Amino acid sequence: MGNNTNIAVCEVKEAIQKLKCGKVPGDDAVCFEMLKAETEETPVILSDILQNIWTEGNVPSPWRKGTITKLPKKGDLGDCGNWRGITLLSLTSKIFCRIILKRIICAVDNIIREALTTFLPCDRY
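Given the sequence above, the corresponding structure tokens read:
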């Protein structure tokens, strides 16, 4: 898939389905339940928005921000080592990134396959 390939509704649906439940929304306030409720229009509208971002290159400012928070581990919470930091990111940006990542993986896989078969005799495939 090249840079000019539109973001398909099926790509958005697949990315939404792969989201893990119980995720806290990022700065854009889009929550998991809103995306999973999936009316027929949700993936269509979202694919249009993502396509515009892809084409124009203007990433929404809430997507560029993350809220850092801490989660307790087991043990004495007075010990700094018993806490771990996480960054809350926009779920919509995660969908966008998942689509881009899948495209990159497919492109790289095709390049690697071609490189590995370049020196094989033509009659082998």
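Residues 9-124 form one domain. Try to locate this feature in the token string yourself.
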